[in-house]
Amino acid sequence: MTKAIVVHAHGGPEALAYEDVTVGAPGKGEALIRQAAIGLNFIDVYFRTGLYPAPNGLPVIPGGEGAGEVVALGEGVDYLQVGDRVAYVSAVGAYAEERLIAADKLVKVPDAIDLETAAAMMLKGMTVEYLFCRTHELKAGETVLFHAAAGGVGLIAGQWARAIGATIIGTVSSPAKADLARAAGYDHVIDYSSEDFVARVKEITGGRGCDVVYDSVGKDTFPGSLDCLRPRGLFVSFGQSSGPIENFDVGLLSRKGSLYMTRPTLFTYNATRPELEASAKALFDMVESGKVKIDVNQRYKLADAAQAHRDLEARKTTGTTLLIP
């Protein structure tokens, strides 16, 4: 038996039940890992509430990011060994002391990176990698707007954009979060609780607009995000922490400057083993080089996952948050 957080019925944070579960031996192509740390992400809320359906329905153990040590391997896994330090991104299943996982979803963690850091950066860091390197190949001299700049993805994005040489504008919801974003490399920070972010972006860019807007907020920042783009700019919607964009009128894209729009996901971009390994390597290289630093700003016990969700949804957290088994 091992301890895990289980959702039996969709609902609020109270739906996260801390209980004993049985973890069997790994089957063919599987690994059993003992987890050192688990990443907290807003997508976990979506699975808890039912906004995103769990792959195999309910009950479900939420959580899609973690790191730990391999304790057993199933048949056919010849690229890992018991004792290997590994990290992963998956759809669900992370909120547990031990878990089974398809071994081809695991990547080895370099010796220079500790397991808490690995757990804190896999989903967030590889999200920045695909957004900046593949959804749009960000180049030096380009200007981008990144919403939720003080979040876990946002703080990595600021550092990554600075390393590339792009100008990055970020939005936040408080002066304290603005300070965090500036420290992470943002050239300009807009506090949308007291400023009109569309007007400020136009002012900062001299009326030109941004080449790309990266938006994980959704409802609260739409359609303002489109008004921050230059003609033929790209709107990247990769989350919806404030709620989904509803009744989207595709004609807006033409009326606001022949804009492009995409709704990418990490799982599509890293669908194959080579893509996953390349994405993880790019991230590990950025961290090992010192160009991107991963700060863990909050830690909760796994048993306190409900409180972690309350704080996340209330926007009380900044940067990266870990659950510790």
Give an account of the 3D structure.
The chain folds into two domains: 2-122 and 274-324, Medium-chain alcohol dehydrogenases, catalytic domain (Quinone Oxidoreductase, Chain A, domain 1), CATH 3.90.180; 140-263, 3-Layer(aba) Sandwich (Rossmann fold). Helix 4 (175-183) links the parallel strand 9 (167-172) and strand 10. The model has no long low-confidence stretch (mean pLDDT 96). With 325 residues, the chain is α/β, with parallel strands linked by helices. The protein is built from nine helices and 15 strands. The chain has helices at residues 42-49, 115-135, 152-164, 175-183, 197-204, 251-255, 266-269, 273-288, 305-313; strands spanning 2-7, 16-21, 30-39, 65-73, 85-89, 98-102, 106-108, 143-146, 167-172, 188-191, 210-215, 229-237, 260-262, 296-301, 320-324. The strands form three sheets. Strands 3, 4, 5, 6, 7, 14 and 15 form a seven-stranded mixed sheet that branches. It has a six-stranded parallel sheet with strand order 10-9-8-11-12-13, with helices on both faces. InterPro entries: ADH-like_C, ADH-like_N, ER, GroES-like_sf, NAD(P)-bd_dom_sf, QOR-like, Quin_OxRdtase/zeta-crystal_CS. Keywords: NADP, Oxidoreductase.
Question: What structural category do the secondary elements indicate?
Answer: alpha/beta
Provide the CATH architecture of the largest domain.
Alpha-Beta Complex
CATH T-level topology of the largest domain: Quinone Oxidoreductase, Chain A, domain 1
> What oligomeric arrangement do these chains adopt?
single chain
Determine the fraction of residues in helical runs and give it as a percent range.
25-40%
CATH superfamily of the largest domain: Medium-chain alcohol dehydrogenases, catalytic domain
The helix-strand sequence is: EEEHEEEEHEHEHEHEEHEHHEHE
Note the gap between the termini: 14 Å
Shape: globular
* Overall domain count: 2
Q: What is the mean pLDDT?
A: 96
Major beta sheet summary: 7 strands, mixed
Number of helices: 9
Strand content: 25-35%
Query: At the first level of CATH, what is the class of the largest domain?
Result: Alpha Beta
Return residue spans where pLDDT drops below 50 for at least 5 consecutive residues.
none
